[in-house]
From TrEMBL:
This is MFS family permease. It comes from the Bacteria. InterPro entries: MFS, MFS_trans_sf. It is found in: Cell membrane. It is a multi-pass membrane protein. The chain crosses the membrane at residues 12-30, 50-71, 83-103, 141-166, 224-247, 259-278, 290-312, 332-357, 378-396. Pfam families: MFS_1. Keywords: Cell membrane, Membrane, Transmembrane, Transmembrane helix, Transport.
Length: 436
């Protein structure tokens, strides 16, 4: 079987991989610059900082909840490569708005661009997974999915690090997001055609009806139901963690925006490492057998992070640690190990589940399956954002909020265990789990 890295030498995979990588980099560069600017230079209150991050996260996620059904229909009934090119063209115009928001230091304009980027990602999301079974051999899908996930999180890492470096220079940040959007448009033009397969039903533009119909048509399959719920709890955990990170760094660890960027970067690279590790362990097999233990380990590392944060001795003069001083702190090593452990375990948990989604149904249904997953995921992430918003209003500290995310890992582990039991009870070849 061809190794995963060998896929990078083929046009059937490389342009999609690079396009996704550039999109993830740009998306995260813009969002992180915006969050760091507002957290460290606009507000000076932990509650308002958490609430702003929750609002920004919610605005980005909302389109996934509202428009995923339409995006899934489009991806399964139109040429996926053509949709990719249209979406990447739209990104250029969205980044023009985002650049204007950065240059004007206008928070509403920046949030408008964040909402638009959510729409952009909603229509690109189903395609990046659904196109893989169409361009790759069955034995290559897990490896391709792992590469996409690893590349995505490495791009997020790069975007996060760069954001920490340029967050104080609006002109440079604006120029970068526009330039990367243009590069993504160029690479998207090299993605090979991926015409629709099977029948072409008419599009349903009624977002509520089509969303309910799509989720109902997917969730009645027990193994898909359990896989989607497992992924959803994972992303709800991720949403709460990402919301907590900048205020935790500033107000508990008393460190600056570059340390916050480092936190987000460690989280991203860890997921990439986890993606590679689980692919090696499974040897190309599409299976969720490592998912329960992985998410339990994730919960353990979150508890460790909370414990270290509670005992952290920050500055007492109102100053913030730079990254050099932060890394010299006695607790920095444990913080780093905790974050890396959380993210590696998270990558090992979620990547096989995404591969499971795209290989359990027929190829002409993969985009709609991913779209149904996105609807449920986004609903879970919105709930997570609202939960973070609400408990911050109640005065719960950032370190204490980590206990909630650790408890959520138990639910994800239980769901993944049920998924493995369902697959063991009724094993089916790939692409044949389309009936209840």
């Amino acid at each position: 079987m061809q190794t995963s890295l060998g896929l990078l030498g083929h046009r059937r995979f490389l342009p999609l991989f690079v396009t996704q990588l550039l999109g993830a980099f740009n998306d995260n560069l813009y969002k992180t610059v915006m969050v760091l600017f507002v957290t460290f230079h606009v507000y000076n209150d932990v509650g308002r900082e958490v609430q702003f991050n929750a609002v920004a996260t919610g605005l980005f996620i909302l389109p996934f909840f509202l428009l995923s059904a339409l995006s899934g229909q489009l991806a399964d009934t139109r040429d996926k490569a053509r949709i990719i090119r249209l979406v990447k063209t739209a990104e250029i115009f969205i980044m023009l708005v985002g650049a204007a928001g950065l240059l004007l230091a206008n928070v509403p304009v920046m949030l408008a661009a964040t909402l638009a980027m959510g729409i952009h990602s909603t229509f690109f999301g189903p395609i990046k997974y659904a196109i893989l079974p169409q361009h790759l051999e069955p034995g290559e899908v897990l490896g391709g999915t792992g590469l996409v996930e690893a590349g995505t999180y490495l791009a997020i890492l790069a975007g996060t690090i760069v954001a920490g470096l340029v967050s104080g220079d609006a002109r440079l940040a604006a120029a970068m997001v526009l330039g990367v959007a243009a590069l993504g448009w160029l690479t998207a033009r090299q993605v090979p055609p991926a015409p629709p397969l099977g029948d072409l039903p008419p599009l349903d533009f009624h977002v509520v009806r089509s969303s309910i119909r799509l989720v109902s048509a997917t969730m009645h399959v027990r193994r898909l139901f359990l896989a989607i719920l497992s992924i959803s709890f994972f992303w709800a955990i991720g949403a709460v963690l990402i919301i907590q990170f900048p205020p935790l760094v500033k107000n508990v660890l008393t460190a600056d925006e570059r340390v916050a960027s480092l936190f987000l970067g460690i989280f991203s690279v860890g997921v990439a490492i986890g993606s590679v590790i689980v692919n090696r362990l499974l040897k190309g097999e599409v299976s969720a057998r490592w998912s329960p233990v992985s998410v339990l380990a994730m919960g353990g590392f979150i508890l460790m992070l909370s414990f270290v944060a509670r005992g952290w001795e920050g500055t007492t003069d109102g100053s913030l640690y730079g990254w050099r001083d932060f890394m010299g702190h006695p607790g920095a090593l444990l913080i780093t190990i905790s974050l890396l452990g959380v993210s590696i375990a998270g990558g090992m948990f979620v990547v096989p589940l995404y591969a499971f989604l795209t290989t359990t149904v027929e190829k002409d249904q993969t985009a709609r399956t991913v779209a149904a997953n996105n609807i449920v995921n986004s609903g879970a992430m919105v709930v997570g954002s609202l939960l973070a918003f609400g408990i911050s209003l109640a005065g719960v500290g950032a370190a204490d909020q980590l206990l909630l995310t650790a408890a959520m890992c138990l639910v994800s582990a239980w769901l993944a265990t049920r998924l493995n039991a369902a697959v063991a009870a009724c094993p089916l070849p790939l692409g044949q789990a389309t009936k209840p």
